[in-house]
Amino acid sequence: MIIAQIILVFFLAFLLCLRGTPMARKAAIRFGIVDHPDGRLKTQREPVPYLGGLSIFVSFLVALALVFNFDRQLLGMLLGGSIVVLLGLVDDFGVLTPGIKLAGQVLAASCLIKSGIWIQFPFFPDYINIGLTLIWLVGITNAFNIIDVMDGLSCGVGLIATIFLLALSIINQNDSISIITAALAGSMLGFLRYNYHPAQIYMGDAGSLFIGLMLGALSITGQWTFNHRIAFVSPLMLLGIPIYDTAYVMILRTLHGRSMFFGSRDHLALRLQKLGLTEMQIVNIFYVAGVMLANMAFLVIYANEVISTALFTTVILVMIIAGVVLSRVKMEE
User: Fold this and answer.
1) What is the pTM of this model?
2) Is the distance from CB of 227 to CB of 307 less than 8 angstroms?
3) Secondary structure element (H or E) that encloses residue 34, with its range
4) Of 77, 202, 196, 88, whose CA–CA distance to 142 is shortest?
């Protein structure tokens, strides 16, 4: 029965987003809600409409409403998700300051915490676990927003992580999380049809913030450490691409004396593009890396502590080496 519900909610969300995204595109064009090229960070040839994030959110919400009986955690996710979607829609018009944007994200994360979604390390008191949860949720929310610099990059990487979380929740027989994750995966797959290169529509901050918040929440509701304690690093590996790119950008901006809150061309993807790779090649490389990290996260859960530690250490070393090499690529200011 639960597998049938998972399949149903997945395809409902997929078909709703597949149908709804062109409608959102038409609305964005009609009302002038488009992303104009600026020759710096926005290098598309012509303006591209926003509002894709709204299509993802509505498809996710409607699919769950038709299939799933809402519980406390889902209501918390929907309330927090609604806050970041509205926040992102306003920010897409360029009228929010970084401080207001951060405050809204903290409010959304607090809704999730109040609904019972928070990190629960037994060796830490509750107030530390809640603090870690707040940092994690806000960090992952922003990470998916930061890597949204190429067609299909943020949505595709998020979809890969979502599919892994769906598989893990099915294995752990966590029925409610399975259905929620299936709805998220279906809506993202439907949107990716129009967002993959060349993108017909962008999801904007509304979509990237929503996907980031949902994956941040879903990644701490699963069972990770049932085999051994080292498996707590699995979410870090699963979401390794947005975490790594965010940390990388922040470090380079700090070293170059630039603000961490404003855009720059320090992203890994843009550095690979500077080396001569096409946008499609770069996005596909990130997809392959996302699949590899997801599989390694899976191994970390089920392998013993020694192998898990070795795998995690190897990933960190590879990321450091790649970061040092790519930092030597000369980028325009």
Assistant:
1) 0.94
2) no
3) strand 34-35
4) 88
